[in-house]
Amino acid sequence: MAFSIRLNDEEKALAYSYAEMHSISVGEAFKSALFEKIEDEYDIAVANEAMKEYIDSGYQSRPISELKKELGL
User: Fold this and answer.
1) SS in 3 state form for the chain?
2) pTM for the structure as a whole
């Protein structure tokens, strides 16, 4: 799949400079940035859901020593 985006001269210069600095093509730079952003937002969503579950549980946590014992460590 191919995409086309419009950049002004300043954005274009920045994109090319970044790609050159990392020895990759501009296309690879955009692809990498896009998937990094998606991954970051996914991680945040997972963390928020885990925090919600923790709060909804009434803040039920336990000492790490208990977990280690349960896991046989």
Assistant:
1) CCCCCCCCHHHHHHHHHHHHHCCCCHHHHHHHHHHHHHHHHHHHHHHHHHHHHHHHCCCCCCCHHHHHHHHCC
2) 0.68
